[in-house]
Design goal:
Length: 802
C-alpha cells in the first residue's frame, strides 16, 4: 500500500516538474499550490525531487560547456588577431568620413535651404487656401454692411445671408468669424424688420392701387367678351385660338388666369398697350421679403403674417362705402377694388412658390363671395331706378366674367342676378305704372282722327289694327280706339325690350329667356296695367263717354295680345308651341278691366239718373195735371237717348244691359218717390201728372234706344209702376181684390203693401180739401167703400207677413 502511494507521489511530482518547465512563469503559482494540497510532507519529497532535477540540469550544462569550450577559446584567439586590423580600418573610416563631411558641407547647406523653401511654399499654399475660404466671407460681410448702409437689401440667392448660413467649419474658429457670427443675429433681425417695413408699405400701396388694377382687369375682360362675341360670328370660317386677357404681360392660351409670366421675354406689338400687373404694382418688396425670410429659415412666419394682413385687407375691401347704392360709380369702385385684390392674390399665387395657396385664395374668395352677395342683396333692395339696376347687373356680369377668367367660381353671383332680376322687374313695373298713368291722363278718350293715308299708316305701324270696313272708308276717317291704345301697346313692347336687356349675358338658354320675358310681361299686364285701368275707371272725373271709350280700348288691346306673343317669339326664337311655354294673360286682364268699366257705366248712369230725379219738383196736392210730362223727366230721357247713342260702339250686350239697368233704376226711383215716407198726402191730380211722366218713360222704352231688345222687354222695367198707376187711375179695386193671387190677374205686379201705402196717402183729406172732397158731396157710400178697401188691403198685408 505504501509502495503504491509512493509511486503515485513520484508520478505526480514528475508531472508538476514538467508543467513548471513547460508553462509560463505566471502560471506556476497554481501548479505549486497543488504540491501543498496533496499529502502531508509531500512538499519535502517534491523539494528533494526538485533538487535532483536541478543537479541533473547542472550536469547537462556542464557537459555542454565542456563540449563548446575549445571553440570559444579559438574564437577569442581569432578576435585578438583582427584587433590591429580593426583599429587600422577605424582610422581609415574616420578619415574618409572627415573628408566626406568636408566635401558635403555645401550640399548640406543647400539641402537645408531647399527644405526651408519647401516649408515656406507649403505655408504659403496653406495660407492661400485659408484666405480663399475667408475672403468670400469677408467680402460678403463687407457687401452686407454696404447694402445695409445704403438701404439696399439682398434679394438674390447669392446674398450674404445665404453664405453665412453655410460658413465652412474650417474658418469658423477664426476670431473674425466669431465676431461676425455674433453680429449676424442682430443683422438678421435688422434686415427682417426693414424688409417687413417694406412689405407693410407694399400692402398699403396695393390697397391704394387695387382700384386701378381691378378697373384694368374688368375693362380687359369686357373687351375680351366683346371680342369673343365678334369672333363667334366667324367661327365657321376656320379654327381660332382665343387669347386670354392678361394683366401680366403677354396674352396666352393658358386657361388658369390672366396674370401670367412672359414665356419668351419678348413683347408683342399691338395697337394698344396692355398694362401688366408689374406696370401697376411693384411686387419686388414681396419677392425680396419672401426670399429673406426663406434664407433666414423663418418663411412660415412671413407666410402667416402676409396671409393674416391680406385677410384684414379683404374685409376692408368688402366693406361697402356710404351711399354706394346711389350711383353706378359707387358700385364700380367697389367691384374694381375687389377684382384688384383677387388679381393681385392670383398673381402672388402663380409668381411665388407657396406664399399663398389655392386653398387660401379659395377660402378668401368664399368669404368674399358671401359678403358681396349680402351687400348687393341689401343695397340693390334700396334702388328704385331700373336704369341703375340694369347698370348694376352689367357690372356684376363683367365682375363675374373677370374673376371667372382667373379661376374663381361665380355661379352664386349669377344666382344673385336672378334675385336682382325680380327686383329689376319690380322697378320696371313701378316705372311703367307712372308711364301708363301719364298716358291715361293725357288721353282725350275719343276716336283717333286720321286725315291722310300717311297718318293712318303711322298709327297702324305703332299698333296692329285691321278693319276692312274702316279701310274702305275715305279720308278723313276715325279709328275706334283712342290715342292711348297705340301708346300703351308701344310701351308694353318697350317694357319687353327693357326686361330683355337684363336677361342678356346671363348664360341662359333661349327658352329660359322666353319664359322670363313672358312672366314679366304677364306681371305688367295683370298687375300694373290692370291696376292702372282699375284706378282710372274709379276716378270721379271719368264720365260715361270716357268709360265707353275705355271699353273699346280694352277690346282692341285684348285683340293685340297675340301680336305681343309673336313679338316675344321673334325676339327669343322660341316657338309658342314649345312645351311649358307661358302664355300671356292679357285676355283676362282686359276682360276684367272691361267688366269693371261696364259696372262703372251702370253705376254712373244710375248716379246721373239720381241727379235728374233730385231735380223733380212735384206739386203733390195739385187738383189737375198740367197735361204734359215734367221737365226734369224730359231732360232725363233726352240725356239717356244721347248717352245710348254713344253706346253704339259698345258690344250689343253691354249697351242692352246698360239700357235695361237704367230703365230699372229709373222705375225703382220713381216708385220710391211715390212711397217716400216723408210724403204724407198725394192728390189724384198728382197721380195723373206722375202717370204722364211714366207714359214718357214707356214711350222711351218702346222707341228701342238700344237695338237688340225683343218685343216689349225694355218696357217691362216699368210694369210695376204701370199696373199700380192703372189701379189708381181706373179705381178698379174690385177687380184687384177679386183676382188677387191669380196668375192671370190684371194687377199681378201690384203689391198689397204698396197699394195700401199709396192709398193711405190719398184718404182722409176732408180737412185738406183732398181728392175725396167731391165724394162727400156726391156719395158718402163711396167713402165707406174706400174704408172697406183699406181694411181688405191690410188684411192681405197681414196675411202675407204671417
Amino acid at each position: 500500500m505504501a509502495e503504491n502511494e509512493t509511486l503515485e507521489c513520484i508520478t505526480e511530482h514528475e508531472r508538476i516538474l514538467q508543467e513548471i518547465e513547460s508553462t509560463d512563469t505566471a502560471c506556476v503559482g497554481p501548479t505549486l499550490r497543488s504540491v501543498y494540497d496533496d499529502q502531508p510532507n509531500a512538499h519535502k519529497r517534491f523539494m528533494e525531487k526538485l533538487d535532483a532535477r536541478i543537479r541533473n540540469h547542472d550536469r547537462e550544462i556542464e557537459k555542454m560547456c565542456n563540449f563548446h569550450h575549445q571553440g570559444f577559446v579559438d574564437a577569442i584567439t581569432e578576435l585578438l588577431k583582427v584587433r590591429a586590423d580593426a583599429e587600422k580600418l577605424m582610422g581609415q573610416v574616420t578619415d574618409t568620413n572627415r573628408r566626406l563631411q568636408e566635401a558635403g558641407r555645401e550640399v548640406t547647406a543647400q539641402t537645408e535651404e531647399v527644405i526651408r523653401c519647401r516649408i515656406q511654399q507649403r505655408n504659403m499654399a496653406t495660407t492661400v487656401e485659408k484666405l480663399q475660404l475667408c475672403i468670400p466671407v469677408l467680402e460678403m460681410y463687407s457687401k452686407l454692411k454696404e447694402q445695409l448702409e445704403s438701404k439696399r437689401y439682398p434679394s438674390h440667392t447669392s446674398c450674404p445671408l445665404g453664405l453665412f448660413c453655410c460658413v465652412p467649419c474650417r474658418v469658423s474658429h477664426y476670431r473674425f468669424c466669431q465676431i461676425m457670427a455674433e453680429n449676424l443675429p442682430r443683422l438678421r433681425e435688422e434686415i427682417k424688420e426693414i424688409s417687413m417695413s417694406d412689405l407693410k408699405d407694399f400692402l398699403e400701396s396695393i390697397r391704394k392701387h387695387s382700384d386701378r388694377v381691378g378697373e384694368t382687369a374688368m375693362r380687359q375682360a369686357q373687351q375680351h367678351r366683346t371680342f369673343n362675341s365678334a369672333v363667334a360670328k366667324q367661327a365657321s370660317m376656320g379654327h381660332y385660338t382665343k387669347p386670354v386677357y392678361s394683366l401680366n404681360g403677354q396674352a396666352h392660351t393658358h386657361p388658369h388666369n390672366g396674370l401670367m409670366i412672359d414665356d419668351t421675354g419678348e413683347e408683342e406689338e399691338g395697337d394698344e398697350e396692355v398694362l401688366t400687373a408689374q406696370d401697376l404694382v411693384d411686387f419686388s418688396p414681396v419677392y425680396r421679403c419672401l426670399h429673406i425670410y426663406t434664407v433666414l429659415g423663418d418663411r412660415e412666419t412671413f407666410e402667416n403674417y402676409y396671409r393674416k394682413q391680406r385677410k384684414k385687407q379683404a374685409r376692408l375691401v368688402l366693406q361697402p362705402q356710404a351711399n354706394m347704392h346711389e350711383t353706378v360709380e359707387g358700385y364700380r369702385r367697389y367691384f374694381n377694388q375687389i377684382v384688384g385684390f383677387f388679381v393681385v392674390e392670383d398673381h402672388i399665387l402663380h409668381a411665388t412658390r407657396g406664399l399663398v395657396t389655392r386653398a387660401f385664395t379659395d377660402e378668401l374668395w368664399n368669404m368674399a363671395l358671401s359678403k358681396i352677395i349680402a351687400v348687393l342683396r341689401t343695397l340693390s333692395s334700396y334702388c328704385d331706378d331700373p336704369d341703375l339696376v340694369l347698370e348694376l347687373k352689367n357690372l356684376i356680369v363683367i365682375f363675374a366674367d373677370t374673376l371667372q377668367g382667373y379661376g374663381f367660381p361665380v355661379n352664386r353671383l349669377f344666382d344673385l342676378l336672378f334675385e336682382i332680376r325680380d327686383q329689376y322687374n319690380e322697378t320696371l313695373l313701378k316705372k311703367w305704372a307712372l308711364v301708363f298713368r301719364e298716358i291715361f291722363e293725357l288721353d282725350n278718350y275719343s276716336p283717333i282722327p286720321v286725315e291722310t293715308e300717311e297718318e293712318y299708316k303711322q298709327v297702324i305701324s305703332r299698333f296692329p289694327f285691321h278693319d276692312a270696313e274702316i279701310e274702305k272708308q275715305d279720308f278723313p276717317k276715325k279709328l275706334p280706339m283712342s290715342q292711348s291704345v297705340p301708346q300703351i301697346y308701344t310701351q308694353v313692347k318697350e317694357f319687353i325690350y327693357a326686361s330683355l336687356k337684363f336677361s342678356e349675358s346671363l348664360h341662359r338658354s333661349s327658352t329660359e329667356i322666353d319664359d322670363m320675358l313672358r312672366k314679366s310681361t304677364n306681371l305688367l299686364l295683370t298687375r300694373t296695367l290692370s291696376g292702372c285701368l282699375q284706378n282710372l275707371i274709379k276716378k270721379p272725373h271719368i264720365g260715361l263717354t270716357e268709360l265707353v271709350q275705355i271699353i273699346i280700348n280694352t277690346t282692341h288691346l285684348e285683340q293685340a295680345c297675340r301680336y305681343l306673343e309673336e313679338f316675344i317669339t321673334n325676339i327669343t326664337n322660341v316657338s309658342p308651341e314649345t312645351v311649358h311655354t307661358t302664355r300671356l294673360y292679357g285676355l283676362s286682364t282686359f276682360k276684367d278691366a272691361r267688366h269693371a268699366a261696364e259696372g262703372e257705366i251702370y253705376t254712373k248712369l244710375n248716379q246721373k239718373i239720381d241727379e235728374f230725379i233730385q231735380l223733380a219738383d212735384y206739386e203733390w196736392g195739385m187738383a189737375e195735371s198740367d197735361g204734359r210730362a215734367s221737365g226734369y223727366l224730359m231732360d232725363l230721357i233726352n240725356f239717356l237717348r244721347s248717352t245710348f247713342q254713344v253706346f253704339t260702339h259698345l258690344p250689343g250686350k253691354v249697351a242692352q244691359t246698360a239700357c235695361m239697368s237704367a230703365c230699372k233704376h229709373l222705375s225703382t226711383s220713381l216708385m220710391q218717390m211715390l212711397l217716400d215716407t216723408e210724403l204724407k198726402q198725394i192728390s189724384m191730380g198728382a197721380i195723373q201728372q206722375f202717370n204722364l211722366d211714366v207714359i214718357q218713360c214707356e214711350l222711351f222704352a218702346s222707341s228701342e234706344p238700344v237695338p237688340g231688345f225683343q218685343g216689349d222687354t225694355l218696357q217691362l222695367a216699368f210694369i210695376d209702376l204701370r199696373q199700380l198707376l192703372d189701379l189708381f187711375m181706373v179705381w178698379d179695386w174690385s177687380t184687384y181684390l177679386a183676382d188677387y193671387g191669380q196668375p192671370t190677374s190684371k194687377y199681378l205686379r201690384v203689391n198689397p203693401a204698396t197699394a195700401l201705402a199709396l192709398l193711405e196717402k190719398m184718404k182722409d183729406t176732408s180737412k185738406k180739401n183732398n181728392i175725396f172732397s167731391q165724394f162727400r158731396k156726391n156719395d158718402r157710400d163711396k167713402q165707406k167703400l174706400i174704408e172697406t178697401v183699406v181694411k181688405q188691403l191690410r188684411s192681405l198685408v197681414n196675411g202675407m207677413s204671417s
